[in-house]
Amino acid sequence: MRRLISLAIGSALVVTGACAQGPQNSNGGPSPVAPTTVTAPAATGGVPALPPFNLEAILQPVSSTYPDALGLVKFRQPNDVAKVVYLDAWVRDLAPNSAYQLQRAVDTTLDGVCTGTAWLTLGADNTTARSILTDDRGTGEAALSRTLPTGTATGTAFDIDFRVIVADSSPANVVLQSDCYRYVVR
After folding, report:
1. Using CB atoms within 10 A as the burial measure, which of 15, 41, 118, 158 is most buried?
2. Do 93 and 138 contact (CB within 8 A), yes or no?
3. CB-based contacts of 6, cutoff 8 Å, min separation 6
4. What whole-number distance in Å separates Cα of residue 5 and Cα of residue 22?
5. CATH number assigned to the domain comprising residue 116
6. 181 forms bridges with which residues in the sheet?
7. Alpha carbon 56 to chain centroid distance?
8. Three-state secondary structure call for residue 80
9. What is the DSSP letter of 45?
10. What CA–CA distances, in Å, run from 165 to 1, 98, 102?
11. What distances in angstroms separate CA 119 from CA 13, 55, 61, 140, 172, one per listed residue?
12. Cβ atoms within 10 Å, residue 61
């Protein structure tokens, strides 16, 4: 079973790596620059090309503490008025029976390099942080969500990266982090 999961994650890494946009690094955070609106170029037949509305972010270890650890965040925003983003987070090979939290940082300078440092801990809504609890094998998952700020226009784009920290650690004890991804609001 573990081999099957490893093969599935490996396949996700190949597919996600092929879909990542622009130069990437592991730094990230919000920028004081106002959000940018992206206009999708027209594809053949006058139908607009689809921006990266959804993404899958691969989380990789940041130190030798958990060299085999891996994570995945499925970042989805339905095409509706509510502008709620759903984040399904999954981790493996971390400390057994432990609590972790998923954080995100955005950067509105659309250069494929996440440069800010203000991290937001994600949860079940906009106010309640929620932990990813690992089982006795160090595997855990959590269904998280975030409502976009009022007035966030469709087409607003930002670069985003994610990290997993030991729950409630201060300063943040980062165990997994993603590259920088591009996201466009539906």
Report:
1. 158
2. yes
3. none
4. 28
5. 2.60.40
6. 160
7. 7
8. coil
9. G
10. 27, 11, 7
11. 24, 19, 18, 21, 10
12. 19
Provide the whole-model pTM: 0.74
Q: Which residues contact 113 (CB under 8 A, 6 or more apart)?
A: 22, 23, 24, 25, 27, 107, 159, 180
Is residue 84's pLDDT more than 60?
A: yes
Count the domains in the chain. Answer: 1
- CB < 8 Å & 24+ apart, contacts of 119-122: 119/28, 119/29, 119/163, 119/172, 120/146, 121/165, 122/87, 122/89, 122/146
Tell me which residue range forms the domain holding 17: 2-41+49-184
The CA distance from 49 to 10, in Å, is 28
Q: Could you list the beta-strand ranges (E) of the chain.
A: 36-37, 55-61, 70-76, 84-92, 99-107, 120-121, 131-133, 140-147, 156-166, 174-177, 181-184
Quick: pLDDT tens for 122-132: 998 777 889 99
Mean pLDDT score across all residues of the chain: 79
